[in-house]
Amino acid sequence: MLIPAIFLGSLTQNNLATSVNRATLAPVLDTYIDPAAPNENYGREPSLVLGSNRAILIDFPELTWSRYSGRRVQSAKMIFTLSRGANNIPLTISLIKKRWMEGEGRSLRFDRPDPANLPWGGASWNFAQQGKDGFKWASGGGKGAGDTAPVEGLTAEVVDRELIISGLGPTIQNRLNNPWSNYGFRIETNADAAFFSGEWSNERPRLEIQWEDASPAGPDLALMTIAKSAESGQYRAIIKNIGSESIASATLEVSSKGSDSQPVTVAGPIEPGATKSVTFSTAIREDLSDPRKVVIQAHLVATGDLNLGNNNLDFYPAGRTIAFEATDETLEALKAISPSSDAIMLYQTVLAKVNNFAMPFSRFLKSPEGIKMRFNLALDPATADYRVNLNNLKEFNTDSLTRITIQSIVPLSEAWRNPPSDAAPWPKALNLNLSWLPDTRDDGLRLSGLELPALGFENTSNPIPLWENGLVSRVEAAFLQSQVGKAKPTNEFLWSLIKPGVLIKIVGANGEDLKNTEVSLYRPGTNSPIATGNSSNGAIVFISGDQIQGGKLFPSPATNGADGWLLAKATRSGASATSWLPAWQILDWSIRGNDSIPNVELRFNMPSQALDSSQNLAKERIVTDSAGRFPAQLATLVDEQVGTGLELLPKQWVEIDLGRDRMIGEIDLALTAKEYPNLEIFGYGTSQNANAAIRWVGLSNLAQLANIYGIEDGTTITIPIIHTAMQMRYVRIINRGETAAQIGDIKVIPVKAQAN
Q: Which residues does the chain have with pLDDT short of 70?
């Protein structure tokens, strides 16, 4: 029984040397299992629930994909955020000895699983992996000796809303040295409690590790790669001594089920820099339809080996092969960032991240367990399914290598990610994902029948925010899924999934519905629209397939990325604005499982009437503020000089008197620092006082507006705030946030005078 530290006295933290590294590991695999529903999987639930004999299963896959060669764990702790529960939670914690899977959970299923035909993989009270080809726990709930092993020497305490489990250092070190000694933790308590799961963005469980670098000279055996031999069931492992001293001999332990290990002798001595090749056989049956189901685990054991972090490899017999290609110059740069200066070790780290992070976590409604495809390293490019050219790398780090690897197996290009011109606004930073396209998965937590939000804007209809981890988009994940089980990758998207016609929800940049607005679609570089529709009173534009010139939105989008874009132009009352509609956004609708006409959202930074941009009504007007500053100080806000200005602190306001009532359609804010506070803009008229002020627009999304519409000039960024026209004389800007606003200049733009 793990006793809360509140009963043991406060936890003390050792004084750590400056050389100690700290890391917080994410993401997590987690679920809970319940004896009251023995065949139910809860893998995608937002909460981890304890009490009534339930148990939490949790693991941190980064322990697998980051090999941490040459590092020694000094301390480690696991942290959960309480969503409900008491301060004192006595826990029983065990190590899980069987490979289990998080599962697709209930949130992604609209039917009830058939107990006789359960979906494969997910953990439940009865199963470590349920379904065909799965296996049960030795004892219900994973309580048997063959399922789990107790962890000793741990303490726990609740601090504010966090449960902190400390003393995990030796356990994590053993896991790094022997990755298949356990598969995470089983946690149980009879107290009623619930924690936020890994489906949450900011409050998911985490593992915090403090470690120090330790790379002493001596023998260091590394398992470099595993490959299939020509004979069925035969495999070859390549082992290298990347250390500075020889080692007498070694044993390669091979397992295909986690408990059926067979030893293979590696004859010695093995001198520094020398390689050894050993063969082994296994009678496992490959499953080409799901490469995840069969995994060969290989583990090197050698007396005197000083670094155990590179002694282990997963090999997927039904997986695809990848070869990395580089010039001598590039290879030298790669060696500089590679463990033990060997590029193959870096390649294996990248593939481990692809297999244990990019593939399983790029999941959505139609692929709740992620992408089935897995990859192995090939040393000969001529025999590989995919070849990765590393000579165009701009940055030499693991993320950059992971990105170029995934991009090499997805047949797109930058032209699919970036529009062909600057004819319409587009987010300025789109290179954080691990593939070509922006990450649109929504993690399956958004109804598939809702339109895909416009890129770069918050998805306010999603109660659980998408974790910004830059994984593979839904379209690309679906493509990779389509390649599983095929003899040769086709490298072709199923663009035929795009249905004729389109339903477009049109919204202003600040969230207002754009009614009675005409929207026309153009092919880039052309002047005649291929289709036109009007939103009338519903802010929805419907364009049928019969209305589209040529019949198809994208006649041949697979030729190059430039023809995978449409320019959308919205007009009403003399005002206009543009936006981009990419082919992948349309295709995303079908990939999510929708058979109806594509339904998308486009945002236009457009006023309700045409603007008179030649006028700045705020120039040299009277300014007052809540801080009581002198007029000469405040005048810098309306002098059209962005280098001047002032600081608007939280809860303060500043107000501009326009002299008389005017119809306002745009206010330009020039910020002298890239900090985006939560502002609100109010207006009221000549015969009114501030108590009658009406909010014109709230700017909690100011950073998003800056990223899409902002105009940068050195350290200053000017953001055009456009909204439905409103009559006002006094313009009041209030800082509602906790961050100061550094305002360099304010412009107020009226609508054009209407002709009689």
A: 1-20, 67-70, 107-113, 214-216, 257-259, 430-431, 443-446, 459-468, 489-491, 754-756
Tell whether 594 and 719 lie within a shared domain. no
- Integer Cα distance of 20 and 137 in angstroms: 39
Quote the CA–CA distance of 237 and 354 in Å, as a whole number: 21
Give CA angle at 98 (92, 100), nearest 5°.
90
pTM strictly above 0.85? yes
H helices of 528-684, where? Answer: 583-591, 631-634
Between CA 165 and CA 175 the distance in angstroms is 17
d(CA 167, CA 153): 6
201 inside domain: yes
Residue whose structure tokens are 């040529």? 550
Instruction: Judge if 584 and 636 occupy the same domain.
Output: no
Task: Report yes or no: 164 and 157 within 8 Å, Cβ to Cβ.
Answer: yes
Cβ atoms of 104 and 43 closer than 8 Å: yes
CA 56/CA 197 separation, integer angstroms:
10
Please state whether beta strands 320-325 and 375-377 pair in parallel, antiparallel, or not at all (unpaired).
Answer: parallel
| Residue 105 exposure: Cα atoms within 13 Å on the Cβ side | 25
Residue type, 630: F
What's the pLDDT tens digit per position in 135-172? 999 999 999 999 999 998 999 999 989 999 999 999 99
Tell me which residue range forms the domain holding 233. 215-318
SS3 content of the chain, % helix, strand, coil (to 5): 15, 35, 50
Of 213, 246, 268, which residue is a domain's last?
213
| Alpha-carbon distances, residue 248 vs 122, 175, 268, 270, 298 (angstroms) | 43, 25, 5, 6, 20
Same domain assignment for residues 190 and 251: no
Same domain as 109, residue 224: no
Tokens representing 11?
Answer: 């936890």
For residues 628 and 714, membership in a common domain is answered with: yes
